[in-house]
């Protein structure tokens, strides 16, 4: 039985990089508890001998030749960036950068 | 972040005497394909930032990956060269984590289904010892973009720190090769680690899958080190050291980690499992990027790409098309050339193998080629701190030089002058001989003149020689050499002296 | 006729009719576009189907088509017929938000493949339509830009996530629209708006340029007021795309022909399966009385037309909703990681120091994502977590296999499957917002098709006691989309013939209050 405590929700929110208010944490914990119970049944009907399907239509070996294609217009792309400098995306300080 | 004070290091010899080191090495090689792993953006060196990107390599909403067949082929060839099994079926997986240099905030890689697995490679150390390193897997993945840290103390943007990101490199194909734990290397662990990386580098170059230059970042090594009291003990906690940019750094990093971990264990502390960063300047390592919650990557099969099932006939075709790999080639040349084991090792360690082979191909004997490359040229390279292969002389020119000696047109002493001329950029050996007039005098008349002059200067020599005392011939030859500025064939002079004296 | 009369005449036409008028030179692309743009202006204050309309841009596209036609160039069959596009589809030079504030103002530098095909066919784009944020929802109430109102009753939802496209069709703002369907987001809105919506076989239409929700479930598809119109549009946007590795080989063809063939209503030789677990015997709970009644009536009509109708059982379908609400959040949590304020879209800085990349990402996503999106990302992160993968995501993928097997077994016995598209007709705005699970139940009949990759269509088949539309869902085997159009057209014919005055259901829609006549 999973427990969606607010601590658990906070842990997952951190992993998913989403700031949540305390009110959101509480509400989500309750909602997710309900949903988790509803979806738990999958582990009951999915027995070990059933293989998993990750692609609905079976295709294999789809690839392309090593030939260059047109690239994006840098100005057009950087015009949409929150911040740009010297042809590059400006991002805030990255912690613990190597 | 650790807050315990760092114990001092234990002397390396002491550390390996009391602990058994275990290694694990991960090597990433950048493939030299024309386009990226999952999109057709071109890959060229030195392009303007963010000009080699498509919606896919920028991770824009809506973009989808499309697999580069040439990259798959290179990955298979690398696997075959490492004696791996090539998977009958494999998939890509998403490795999910947030970092500004990976535009999707996940890396498309391979998780529990690598394209190649369970292989091995023999690594030859300088003294001829062979260590077999077992390869756990080789898999395909994509490279990240490049962050450049800006600001802070140089006054930009009111001192605020930030980064500039270039995604040109994002998406370049990588193959990651992971070893199984390398056991039993003892005090030679650093050497084995460096030799392993060098061996892989040579294989990549031979296969032609990558330019494989560590200093350019085409080949990157992450070195894992752990210590245990003895080989019978369970494996210790390992650290992973990154930013190791040369073979020598691999050696130094392993050496340092062994010393450091020994000190930690001696102090009764536990080695912290962490990623560390190697410092070129002083050969030390320090804790690297702090990772939150032991980084749960939440791997799952990549739904946007379909499985790869390399056709067995294709794999066999690639296998039979593999070029002769470095180890096999070395053995073959060793036999063909007939060098002694020590001589061969010296040649390999000096990086002269290709050069000698090329000189032989251009028309000289292995022994002669070795004489020049390992002799005079090696001396010159060493004193000018240049790599042998970077000297401004070609293997063909070396062959030509020897041919001139063999033809009697120059002698060894002159040959060294000719060599100097070639290295100075005066042209081919033939050019230098002609320009500097270094050819051995072939005109007997000229020689006889010099001989007569020498004999005339020392009349009693002729009598002594006639009398069977051949010692003084050397003096005559010496005088003739001096007179001809060394451009006389000593053998011919000797013949003529004997004739003259009898006359 | 007067300008207003011309406008009403043109906006009430089917796409096939408009195409014929355009080809015959009876009307210009500019006239057609103008008529629709005027209609949009008139009803949008009430309906709010669109997030972005650029009148001048649309007219420019229309003028270009007219010029090409005048120059005698050979044009596509549908050239000049305008189309509305769900805002989850990336359009170069035109803002694309996927219904989210985190992409407010983002102007993409490239076109989705399907957009390239629409442009190549000379079909002017009327605008981008409203949707639940990142396609997560069944009512369009989760749009970051306010809900869309059902043209049948403005106090009710138009369905979701593609409520904007469906409402635009029902309100005669567009003759054709593009939607996307991950768990029913084309079919369920079609059902509650009395329009036609198709989820093609997975891989039939390229996903390149669709803002991804769940990669293994998403599929773009045609929305229209008639089955033939949907088939025509499917042929424009479908077909292999080398940029999408999951795209099927071969062209998208034969659908319009199949629809024309089916329009006779003759279903002799067709075996139809009623899926017990989708509102059939023993599974009626949750299905509105009139929905079940309309379904039974339609089944009678099918039998009357010569179809052989049997009940089939697909037991794993009872676990489909659960599997879906594990697979979708898991894939979505990964697909939505790219929205972090670094390269495009909204960037929000935390209120306090330090301002680091990590904290900006979290603040941006906290501010930019709505509650449903957050809910699913957290759930998906959980489902993929170390230690939970096997029980959740891993198990859901196994259920998927079972669902595929049930479909395969069913299609051995029958040619198509039928069910009601949705359990209810349009509910009131706000009615299910506080109960996520109740909202998810709207998709119970549509979800199995996405999990298996098989195609499905929703065709209007009745009205409830309040006069709100009901839809019938038809499912076919993978790659048998043509069969869907044939049977769909037959149902459309039979249902229409069965109605008073043999009038199409859409004709019953009440007039929408407009601020500008007409």
Automatic annotation (TrEMBL), chain A:
SUPFAM superfamilies: Glu-tRNAGln amidotransferase C subunit
Function of the molecule: Allows the formation of correctly charged Asn-tRNA(Asn) or Gln-tRNA(Gln) through the transamidation of misacylated Asp-tRNA(Asn) or Glu-tRNA(Gln) in organisms which lack either or both of asparaginyl-tRNA or glutaminyl-tRNA synthetases. The reaction takes place in the presence of glutamine and ATP through an activated phospho-Asp-tRNA(Asn) or phospho-Glu-tRNA(Gln).
Gene: gatC
Protein's GO biological process: glutaminyl-tRNAGln biosynthesis via transamidation; regulation of translational fidelity; translation
Gene Ontology molecular functions: asparaginyl-tRNA synthase (glutamine-hydrolyzing) activity; ATP binding; glutaminyl-tRNA synthase (glutamine-hydrolyzing) activity; transferase activity
Assembly: Heterotrimer of A, B and C subunits.
Enzyme Commission number(s): 6.3.5.-
Protein keywords: ATP-binding, Ligase, Nucleotide-binding, Protein biosynthesis, Transferase
InterPro entries assigned to the protein according to its UniProt record, in alphabetical order: Asp/Glu-ADT_sf_sub_c, GatC
Broad class of enzyme this protein falls into: ligase
Gene3D superfamilies per the UniProt record, alphabetical: Glu-tRNAGln amidotransferase C subunit, N-terminal domain
HAMAP family tied to this protein: GatC (MF_00122)
Sequence similarity: Belongs to the GatC family.
Pfam families: GatC
The name this protein goes by in its record: Aspartyl/glutamyl-tRNA(Asn/Gln) amidotransferase subunit C
Reactions catalysed according to its record: L-aspartyl-tRNA(Asn) + L-glutamine + ATP + H2O = L-asparaginyl-tRNA(Asn) + L-glutamate + ADP + phosphate + 2 H(+); L-glutamyl-tRNA(Gln) + L-glutamine + ATP + H2O = L-glutaminyl-tRNA(Gln) + L-glutamate + ADP + phosphate + H(+)
Domain of life of the native organism: Bacteria
Automatic annotation (TrEMBL), chain B:
Phylogenetic lineage: Bacteria, Bacillati, Actinomycetota, Actinomycetes, Micrococcales
HAMAP family for the chain: GatB
Pfam families: GatB_N (PF02934), GatB_Yqey (PF02637)
Asn/Gln amidotransferase domain span: 354-501
Subunit structure and binding partners: Heterotrimer of A, B and C subunits.
SUPFAM superfamilies tied to this protein: GatB/YqeY motif (SSF89095), Glutamine synthetase/guanido kinase (SSF55931)
Native source species: Salana multivorans
InterPro entries attached to this UniProt entry: Asn/Gln-tRNA_amidoTrfase_suB/E, Asn/Gln-tRNA_Trfase_suB/E_cat, Asn/Gln_amidotransferase, Asn/Gln_tRNA_amidoTrase-B-like, GatB, GatB_Yqey_C_2, Gln-tRNA_amidoTrfase_suB_CS, Gln_synth/guanido_kin_cat_dom
Listed name of the protein: Aspartyl/glutamyl-tRNA(Asn/Gln) amidotransferase subunit B
Gene Ontology terms describing biological process: glutaminyl-tRNAGln biosynthesis via transamidation; translation
EC class name: ligase
């Amino acid at each position: 039985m999973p427990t969606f405590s607010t601590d658990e929700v906070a842990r997952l929110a951190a992993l998913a990089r989403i700031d949540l208010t305390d009110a959101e944490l509480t509400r989500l914990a309750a909602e997710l508890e309900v949903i988790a119970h509803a979806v738990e049944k999958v582990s009951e009907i999915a027995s070990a001998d059933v293989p998993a399907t990750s692609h609905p239509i079976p295709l294999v070996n789809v690839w392309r030749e090593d030939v260059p294609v047109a690239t994006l217009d840098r100005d057009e792309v950087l015009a949409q960036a929150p911040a740009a400098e010297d042809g590059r995306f400006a991002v805030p300080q990255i912690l613990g950068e190597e | 972040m650790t807050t315990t004070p760092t114990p001092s290091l234990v002397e390396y010899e002491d550390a390996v005497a009391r602990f058994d080191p275990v290694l694990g090495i991960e090597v990433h090689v950048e493939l030299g394909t024309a386009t990226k792993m999952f999109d057709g953006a071109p890959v060229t060196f030195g392009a303007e930032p963010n000009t080699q990107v498509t919606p896919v390599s920028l991770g824009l909403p809506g973009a989808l990956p499309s697999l580069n067949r040439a990259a798959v082929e290179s990955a298979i060839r690398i696997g075959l060269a490492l004696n791996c099994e090539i998977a009958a079926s494999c998939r890509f997986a998403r490795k999910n984590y947030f970092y500004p240099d990976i535009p999707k905030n996940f890396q498309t890689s391979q998780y529990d289904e690598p394209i190649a697995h369970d292989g091995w490679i023999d690594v030859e150390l300088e003294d001829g010892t062979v260590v077999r390193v077992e390869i756990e897997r080789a898999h395909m993945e994509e490279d990240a973009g490049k962050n450049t840290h800006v600001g802070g103390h140089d006054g930009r943007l009111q001192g605020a720190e930030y980064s500039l990101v270039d995604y040109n490199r994002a998406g370049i194909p990588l193959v990651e090769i992971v070893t199984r734990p390398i056991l039993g290397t003892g005090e030679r662990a650093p050497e084995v680690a460096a030799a392993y990386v060098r061996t892989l580098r040579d294989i990549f170059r031979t296969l032609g899958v990558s330019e494989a230059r560590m200093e350019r970042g085409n080949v990157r090594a992450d070195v894992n080190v752990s210590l245990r009291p003895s080989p019978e003990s369970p494996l210790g906690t390992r650290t992973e050291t990154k930013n190791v940019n040369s073979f020598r750094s691999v050696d130094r990093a392993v050496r340092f980690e062994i010393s450091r971990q020994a000190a930690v264990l001696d102090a009764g502390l536990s080695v912290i499992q962490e990623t560390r960063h190697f410092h070129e300047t002083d050969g030390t390592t320090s804790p690297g990027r702090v990772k939150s919650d032991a980084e749960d990557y939440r791997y799952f099969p990549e739904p946007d790409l379909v499985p790869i099932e390399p056709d067995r006939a294709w794999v066999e075709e690639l296998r039979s098309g593999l070029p002769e790999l470095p180890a096999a080639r070395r053995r073959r040349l060793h036999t063909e050339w007939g060098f002694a084991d020590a001589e061969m090792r010296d040649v390999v360690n000096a990086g002269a193998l290709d050069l000698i082979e090329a000189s032989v191909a251009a028309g000289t004997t292995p022994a002669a080629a070795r004489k020049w490359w390992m002799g005079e040229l090696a001396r010159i390279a060493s004193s000018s701190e240049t790599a042998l292969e970077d000297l401004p002389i070609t293997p063909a020119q070396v062959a030509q030089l020897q041919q001139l000696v063999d033809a009697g047109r120059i002698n060894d002493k002159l040959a060294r002058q000719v060599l100097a001329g070639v290295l100075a950029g005066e042209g081919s050996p033939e050019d230098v001989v002609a320009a500097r007039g270094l050819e051995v005098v072939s005109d007997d008349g000229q020689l006889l003149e010099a001989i007569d002059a020498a004999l005339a200067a020392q009349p009693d020599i002729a009598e002594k020689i006639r009398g069977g005392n051949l010692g003084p011939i050397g003096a005559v030859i010496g005088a003739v050499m001096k007179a001809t500025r060394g451009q006389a064939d000593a053998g011919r002079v000797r013949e003529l002296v004997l004739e003259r004296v009898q006359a | 006729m007067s300008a207003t009369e011309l406008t009403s005449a043109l906006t009430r036409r089917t796409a096939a009719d408009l195409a014929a008028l355009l080809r015959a030179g009876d009307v210009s692309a500019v006239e057609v576009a103008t008529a629709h743009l005027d209609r949009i202006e008139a009803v949008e204050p009430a309906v709010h189907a669109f997030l972005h309309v650029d009148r001048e841009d649309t007219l420019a596209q229309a003028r270009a088509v007219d010029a090409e036609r005048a120059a005698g160039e050979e044009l596509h069959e549908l050239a000049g017929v305008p189309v509305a596009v769900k805002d989850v589809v990336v359009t170069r030079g035109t803002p694309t938000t996927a219904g989210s504030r985190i992409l407010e103002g983002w102007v993409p530098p490239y076109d989705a493949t399907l957009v390239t095909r629409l442009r190549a066919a000379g079909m002017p784009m009327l605008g981008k339509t409203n949707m639940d944020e990142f396609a997560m929802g069944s009512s369009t109430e989760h749009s970051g830009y306010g809900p869309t109102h059902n043209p049948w009753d403005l106090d009710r939802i138009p369905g979701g996530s593609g409520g904007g496209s469906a409402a635009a069709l029902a309100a005669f703002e567009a003759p054709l629209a593009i939607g996307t369907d991950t768990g029913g987001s084309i079919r369920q809105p079609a059902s509650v708006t009395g329009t036609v919506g198709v989820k093609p076989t997975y891989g039939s239409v390229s996903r390149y340029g669709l803002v991804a929700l769940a990669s293994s479930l998403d599929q773009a598809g045609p929305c229209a007021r008639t089955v033939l119109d949907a088939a025509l549009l499917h042929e424009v946007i479908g077909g292999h795309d080398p940029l999408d590795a999951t795209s099927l080989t071969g062209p998208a063809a034969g659908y319009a022909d199949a629809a024309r063939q089916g329009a006779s209503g003759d279903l002799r030789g067709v075996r139809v399966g009623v899926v017990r677990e989708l509102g059939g015997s023993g599974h009626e709970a949750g299905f509105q009385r009139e929905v079940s009644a309309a379904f039974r009536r339609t089944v009678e009509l099918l039998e009357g037309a010569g179809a052989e109708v049997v009940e089939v059982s697909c037991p794993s379908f009872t676990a489909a909703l659960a599997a879906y609400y594990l697979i979708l959040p898991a894939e979505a949590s990964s697909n939505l990681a790219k929205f972090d304020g670094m390269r495009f879209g909204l960037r929000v800085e935390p209120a306090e120091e330090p301002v680091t990349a990590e904290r900006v990402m979290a603040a941006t996503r906290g501010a930019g994502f709505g509650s449903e999106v957050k809910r699913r990302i957290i759930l998906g992160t959980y489902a993929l977590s170390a230690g939970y993968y096997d029980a959740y995501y891993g198990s859901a993928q196994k259920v998927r296999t079972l669902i595929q097997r049930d479909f395969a077994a069913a299609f051995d016995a029958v040619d198509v499957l039928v069910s009601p598209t949705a359990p209810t007709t349009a509910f009131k705005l706000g009615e299910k917002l506080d109960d996520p699970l109740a909202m998810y139940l709207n998709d119970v009949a549509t979800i199995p098709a996405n999990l298996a990759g098989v195609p499905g269509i929703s065709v209007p088949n009745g009205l409830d006691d309040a006069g709100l539309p009901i839809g019938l869902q038809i499912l076919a085997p993978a790659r048998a989309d043509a069969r869907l159009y044939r049977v769909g057209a037959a149902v459309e014919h039979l249902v229409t013939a069965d109605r008073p005055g043999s009038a199409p259901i859409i004709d019953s829609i009440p007039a929408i209050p407009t601020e500008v006549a007409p």
